[in-house]
Design goal:
Number of helices: 9
Number of strands: 9
Distance between the termini: 26 Å
Order of helices and strands: EHEEHEHEHEHHEEEHHH
Strand order of the largest sheet: 3-2-1-4-5-6-7-8-9
Helix content: 25-40%
Radius of gyration: 17 Å
Strand content: 15-25%
Largest sheet: 9 strands, mixed
């Protein structure tokens, strides 16, 4: 069999580095490998980060982000792109421009704060996310804090998810996935394109080690899209993968540990 016949699907992550390995670029690449795709990366920022919080953030220059993206896309090509931490308005606008010129689905995880409550997006960048980044997204995947930041809609009950999704779709993504993981009860998310509505439910696992869930979910969706899955099926499979990873999350350091990206391999 030729090398080209066995090449895995190509997925590019545009995100920040998590030195503790639980989220960001590190979580993205682990997820992509676990799901049988070839992960590539564009680093937007470096964080000093561990299980108890973020101790420092250093953005990369716009020209470095653009050069990384072009280097990968122009030579290797991409079949799906996932974005995470973009930090500043300038980086958001640069990445949005790059996505607009790329013929591949884009999963936008509009990262605003870390698991520990540390800000990872400048307030001045919110308008750029709304007007530049969301319009080029195939799927946008905010959690409840992020959707409130972007739309002003605060979700306190499952019934509010519809209102949040409708408000997010106003900014132009093809699909909105509103993650209801912070609500009490089972873990319920709403995926909609404004006409079709898909509710995704999973049992809530009694495990506080959930660092990296948002990055992992978005990367899993991008991996499914790179394989040629339609959005609803890519999201369903990603939800199943993340649910297993949360169940297998493990303690690391003195704070919140990561989900286990290799849970299915260990189970096998």
């Amino acid at each position: 069999m030729s090398a080209s016949a066995i090449r895995p699907p190509l997925v590019l992550t545009v995100a920040g580095s998590d030195s503790g390995g639980g989220a960001g670029i590190q979580a993205d690449l682990k997820t992509m490998l676990a799901l049988g795709t070839h992960g590539m990366s564009v680093l937007t920022a470096v964080t000093a980060q561990n299980s108890v919080g973020v101790q420092g953030v250093w953005e990369l220059p716009v020209e470095a982000v653009r050069a990384q993206y072009r280097s990968v896309a122009d030579d290797i090509g991409v079949q799906a792109v996932k974005t995470g931490m973009l930090a500043s308005a300038e980086l958001v606008e640069t990445v949005a421009e790059l996505l607009a010129g790329t013929d591949a689905p884009a999963v936008v995880d509009p990262v605003g704060v870390s698991k520990h409550g540390d800000s990872l997006l400048a307030q001045a960048a919110l308008d750029s996310v709304r007007t530049k980044l969301l319009p080029v997204a195939t799927v946008a995947t905010p959690n409840l804090d992020e959707v409130a930041q972007l739309t002003g809609v605060r979700v306190s009950a499952e019934a509010d998810l519809r209102r949040a999704a409708a408000a997010l779709l106003e900014f132009g993504p093809r699909w909105a996935l509103i993650k209801g993981g912070h609500l009490p009860g089972e873990a319920v998310d709403l995926l909609t394109d404004g006409s079709e509505e898909i509710w995704l439910r999973a049992p809530r696992h009694d495990n506080r080690h959930t660092h990296g869930t948002g990055c992992t979910l978005a990367s899993a969706i991008a991996s499914g899209l790179a394989k040629g899955l339609e959005v609803p099926e890519a999201v369903r499979q990603a939800k199943d993968y993340v649910t297993g990873a949360i169940a297998a999350g493990f303690a690391l350091g003195a704070g919140i540990g990561p989900v286990d990206h290799a849970w299915a391999m260990r189970k096998a």
